[in-house]
Known about the structure:
The structure is a single chain. 36% of the residues lie in helices and 23% in strands. The chain is an alpha/beta fold and 447 residues long. The chain has 3 domains: 88 residues, Rossmann fold (3-Layer(aba) Sandwich); 209 residues, 3-Layer(aba) Sandwich (UDP-N-acetylmuramoyl-L-alanine:D-glutamate ligase), CATH 3.40.1190; 133 residues, Protein-Tyrosine Phosphatase, Chain A (Alpha-Beta Complex), CATH 3.90.190.20. Helix 6 crosses helix 12. The radius of gyration is 23 Å and the shape is globular. The N and C termini lie far apart (67 Å). One of its GO terms (molecular function) is UDP-N-acetylmuramoylalanine-D-glutamate ligase activity.
Amino acid sequence: MQQKVVILGGGESGVGAAILAKSKGFEVFLSDKGKLHDRYIEILRKEDIAFEQEQHTTEKILDADLVVKSPGIPDTVPLIVALREKSVPIVSEIEFAAGYTNARIIAITGSNGKTTTTLLTYHLLKNAGLKIGLAGNIGDSFAWQVATQQHDFYVLEISSFQLDNILNFHPEITVLLNITPDHLDRYGYDFQNYINSKFNIIQNQTDEDYLIYFKESEVIQTELEKRNPQVRRVEISLNETTIEGAYLSDGKLISTIKGETFEEDFDTLPIKGPHNAINAMAAISVARLLNIDHLKICEGLRSFKNAPHRLEIVEVIDGVTYVNDSKATNVDSVFYALGSFNQPVILIAGGVDKGNDYAQIEELVRNKVKGLVVLGKGPEKLVKYFSGIVPVIFETENIQEAVEKASEWAVDQDVVLLSPACASFDLFKNYEDRGDQFKAAVRNLVH
């Protein structure tokens, strides 16, 4: 009898999972409580995959032999609870797709920096001629690629939500950049639950696999001591020499892997700031574990273009540099952003606060920020915290007004930095929309 697979969520990952399930002979039904994008409706019809939108038909879903759940659906919703009570296996698209490929998997996670690291790793390996796919929390659906393409390697950006439903997922190389409080509303406001989710990435690794991690992360160090996983460790450090791994010394990225040393001047790279030194060292470490030629690595590092909304220079107007870091949706990201500049900063921050603790950036703000523009519907927490620390504070719900006020305060050699520390949903569709509106507002200054 044909097994029934139900896909919950009809976005990129859900439709990809449906296509893979159909190609493997399952009876497939896709259900989304929201409205499906026209493009996905067209694809599902073309593939003759049954689906529903703007509802969940409970009886049909509970009749599944396997459920592939969108990462955006929390485990606490009644439908998921009911499925668990019936002992129906629930997996993520990542878990489902990994079971149908023999490609070698490089999986990258962290509270911050994972997109840049994933893109850079993919760029280095693709530039070296590897047959490689890019997927996970970025790019085309992993399952879709497994169903329709042939790759020898995949570089996957993995979020904690995707790691919540992992059973057998087994990357050959994992990268764990950092773990700082984020998405705590999803994890019962218990940081340890979020940490556990991130560490799911190594749960199936063996002593033949590699874990690349940032040595200065106290959370990661504590967990490694507690868990003592049987995996080969590759350390990355900004402060210390590493025996097997990479470190930053006098502006040079130095990597020692398998007894061989690689060096590159960090200043020659198109990405800046200490957080990007960590990201670059992680990508270099992956490339070197896969025996990529040194010259190819250097070539790839210099030709890399980062994704938008990550310390993206928008314009330099009258000597003032306007920087879009809209992706900085938590305090840790802002810490790294402020650490990337030596010039005085006018900071634009605010939005939906996710339980932020601003103590982490207090000293940097005190030393670097000459003005704070609070952009958002609930400015009280930011204003209260930084009153008396920042010389001038301005509140607004209008991004053009925010940029104009920052421009009014700025002088030659200053940086106007949008690095919000908060989610964007009070005033914008998402962080991309916020970043795009910021860029448009900056460009309006010169018209």
